[in-house]
Specification:
Blueprint (H helix, E strand, L loop, with lengths): L1 H7 L4 H27 L23 H26 L8 H26 L4 H24 L13 H8 L1 H18 L21 H27 L9 H23 L4 H25 L35
Helix pairs in contact: 2-3, 2-5, 2-10, 3-4, 4-5, 5-7, 5-10, 7-8, 8-9, 9-10
Length: about 325
């Protein structure tokens, strides 16, 4: 039956790429709205799940409840978008198996987010669970970007890179970026924006006593500085004679966003962490990670050492003479 339906219904690569764009935008929006819930102290604005205050289908006209319920509604709409991206991957023509595999990860991730969100509410915003909620969102961004990028190119459209050291230098930025994000989530879980309102008690990280927040922020700043200087070094390395410069444009965006994050981070600390500026910092971090994924993808896959074309590729020219079509890689690109 499913095979018969696939034969009757087809979706073009262009149309499917549009679906993946909507899914990726939705995945980014849910990070922004989730941060707004936490920073406006609305984490327990709806103290139960999935309904708000038990009986009604709509939250009470109270700002915290409205913000929390709005985040849940956005999650529901996102669920529709990622289910569409998953199902339609099986009807894309030409069919590509790895797009279907990546597509399946998205609804599974959203379901996991919903379950984790329920646990976050049940256990009064334990910082470990809230951290896991955010990290899972970033992992979903990884999968969403991979689907977004890979859906735009057939395997033979994307030339491989001959610059092995340049590609690996770009990929080496990934763990630095991940550690910086992880330290940022720990800082949030140690600070004044743990998500409670009206005197509710919500646990924070206190492994360094009253100095926990400052201790974590200092290490977060050090990791961010290492990440930034490493990115600058890679930027100059890609510009060396004979280097493959395809990743320069997105890496430049990464550097600009890191600079903006540094300025905003300094301002928010000096102003004692006003929630609005902290939200801007989180939004910039999310945009920075998306730019990093773009950089990895643009850097490309590597040519096989033996010089033989990979399966599925057509008519690759010698290294210095290849076409300049965009390449897909990194973040799950095949």
């Amino acid at each position: 039956m499913f095979a018969s339906l696939r034969n009757r219904f087809e979706i073009s690569p262009h149309r499917y790429a549009q679906v993946t764009t909507i899914a990726l935008i939705g995945l980014a929006l849910i990070v922004f709205s989730g941060a707004a819930v936490r920073l406006t102290e609305s984490g327990l604005g709806c103290p139960d799940w999935p309904q708000c205050y038990g009986q009604g289908q709509h939250p009470e006209l109270e700002s915290h409840a409205v913000i929390e319920m709005s985040n849940r509604i956005i999650t529901g709409l996102l669920g529709v978008a990622v289910i569409a991206a998953c199902l339609l991957s099986f009807f894309r023509r030409p069919y590509r198996k790895h797009l279907a595999w990546i597509g399946v990860l998205l609804p599974l991730g959203v379901i996991a987010q919903a379950i984790l969100g329920a646990l976050v509410v049940k256990y009064d915003l334990r910082p470990e669970l809230v951290m896991g909620h955010f990290i899972l969102s970033m992992m979903l961004l990884d999968a969403g970007f991979a689907l977004f990028w890979c859906s735009r190119y057939e395997p033979w459209d994307r030339r491989r890179s001959w610059d092995r050291k340049g590609v690996w230098a770009v990929r080496g930025l990934v763990p630095l970026g991940q550690l910086t994000i992880l330290a940022g989530t720990i800082a949030t879980g140690s600070g004044p924006h743990a998500g409670e309102f009206e005197g509710q008690f919500v646990k924070r990280f206190t492994f360094e006593g009253h100095d926990t927040l400052e201790w974590v922020v200092q290490r977060h700043a050090v990791l961010a500085a290492i990440y930034g200087f490493a990115a600058i070094g890679v930027w100059f390395y890609l510009r060396r004679p004979g280097g493959d410069r395809r990743a320069l444009k997105p890496l430049t965006l990464v550097l600009l966003l890191l600079l903006a994050q540094g300025v905003v981070g300094y301002i928010q600390w000096e102003l004692e962490l006003p929630s609005e500026i902290v939200w801007v910092h989180v939004a910039l971090a999310t945009c920075n990670w998306l730019a990093m994924l773009w950089t990895i993808a643009a850097a490309g896959r590597l040519e096989p050492r033996a010089g033989t074309p990979a399966v599925g590729e057509r008519g690759e020219a010698p290294s210095g003479q290849q076409a300049s079509a965009p390449t897909g890689a990194g973040a799950g690109a095949a």
